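Hi all, a correction to my earlier message: I attached the wrong file for Antibiotic biosynthesis monooxygenase. Here's the right sequence:
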Amino acid sequence: MNVEKFVIAKLYIRPEATTEFRSALDTLAALTRKEPGCIAYTWYPEPGEAGAFTLIEHYRDQAGLKYHFAQPYLVDFVKKMEGWKTKDLKVYFLSASPDALQEDK
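and the right structure:
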């Protein structure tokens, strides 16, 4: 069953790391949008919450999401997050089918 997958992540970045973070996130977004399973990848700074950013990702199916998580540029970005973040990120995995996240493991 191919069910579209969504990821919503909220990241919290140290003020002095914001410029470097935004540059790396722009690069990550551009690379991710070229992935075969990616439908959309956008991010926004949170208004009124300095250093907070929301990422919204949309993939064709579980295979597209797995492909994304296996990419070296994502692994590199996640490693860099350790030095940029002020607290742990919040990540939500969503799907149109309530059982879809379990079905595709």
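Sorry for the mix-up. The mean pLDDT is 92.
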